[in-house]
Amino acid sequence: MPELPEVQALVDFLRVRTEGLVVTGVELGSISVLKTFSPPPQALVGAPVDGVARHGKFLDLDCGGTHLVFHLARAGWLRWSDAIPATVLRPGKSPIALRVRFDDGSGFDLTEAGTKKSLAAYIVGDVSAVPRIVSLGPDPLGDDFTLEVFSQIAASHRMQIKGMLRDQSIIAGVGNAYSDEVLHVAKLSPFALAVNLSPDEVERLYRALRGTLAAAVATASGKPAKELKDAKRAGMRVHGRTGEVCPECGDVVREVSFADSSLQYCATCQTGGKPLADRRTSKFLK
């Protein structure tokens, strides 16, 4: 799933590529991808791209005051082409959910792999019309996201810090991968309760959150869209590296599996050497 650093890189990429361009077509390969019905896709045709922004994991193209907003979900991606195919996209079984064309012949496709279709697009006059954007928590890289703000967040949530970091209504933009990375840097168990963290642990988590995301944004910056997935995987310390050596201490990276996801961590660095039970509980193995 694209998270804050990759989404920001896509925003920067689109901002450069679409400067001065005008939308000439919007085609749906999947009717269900569009979550709004007014204004229609044709409202974007003839509009200039005035800006590209990010809201959490949402991308926002401002086209003459009408916004094309989309969330790539778990298996979605943006595929750019300097010469978009001339063939008109038709609804069907193609992995392409939506296509946008520009007046210089370029454009992009929103694609989604797998059978579970979660990619979502919205065409709105104001981004506040997208409920999931309105409900977003603060951006962890925002200037107003201070240690004091984060401390208040942690103190008010009696939940595991892994879940707190991933909850978009609490903090916007972090998903499964970067929450693993942040917790490894902070040397904290993913199952620790936020409300029970000491002031020192809260500060460590705050510094790890900001530092890890900022470094990932810097790494992704300037890369074309097609290279971002590989760059993300290559930069992971523990996430997706079950069985490999921890880069900090040399212990093995371990995993906790759930029904539809998993987390990775280092027992030596994060849990006092005690492996976490590989089941849906916060208890340690006996």
UniProtKB/TrEMBL annotation:
<keyword id="KW-0238">DNA-binding</keyword>
<dbReference type="InterPro" id="IPR015886">
    <property type="entry name" value="H2TH_FPG"/>
</dbReference>
<keyword id="KW-0511">Multifunctional enzyme</keyword>
<dbReference type="Pfam" id="PF01149">
    <property type="entry name" value="Fapy_DNA_glyco"/>
</dbReference>
<protein>
    <submittedName>
        <fullName>Fpg/Nei family DNA glycosylase</fullName>
    </submittedName>
</protein>
<keyword id="KW-0326">Glycosidase</keyword>
<dbReference type="Pfam" id="PF06831">
    <property type="entry name" value="H2TH"/>
</dbReference>
<dbReference type="Pfam" id="PF06827">
    <property type="entry name" value="zf-FPG_IleRS"/>
</dbReference>
<keyword id="KW-0234">DNA repair</keyword>
<keyword id="KW-0456">Lyase</keyword>
<keyword id="KW-0863">Zinc-finger</keyword>
<keyword id="KW-0479">Metal-binding</keyword>
<comment type="similarity">
    <text>Belongs to the FPG family.</text>
</comment>
<keyword id="KW-0862">Zinc</keyword>
<feature type="domain" description="FPG-type">
    <location>
        <begin position="237"/>
        <end position="271"/>
    </location>
</feature>
<dbReference type="InterPro" id="IPR000214">
    <property type="entry name" value="Znf_DNA_glyclase/AP_lyase"/>
</dbReference>
<keyword id="KW-0227">DNA damage</keyword>
<keyword id="KW-0378">Hydrolase</keyword>
<dbReference type="InterPro" id="IPR010979">
    <property type="entry name" value="Ribosomal_uS13-like_H2TH"/>
</dbReference>
<dbReference type="InterPro" id="IPR010663">
    <property type="entry name" value="Znf_FPG/IleRS"/>
</dbReference>
<dbReference type="InterPro" id="IPR035937">
    <property type="entry name" value="FPG_N"/>
</dbReference>
<dbReference type="InterPro" id="IPR012319">
    <property type="entry name" value="FPG_cat"/>
</dbReference>
<feature type="domain" description="Formamidopyrimidine-DNA glycosylase catalytic">
    <location>
        <begin position="2"/>
        <end position="109"/>
    </location>
</feature>
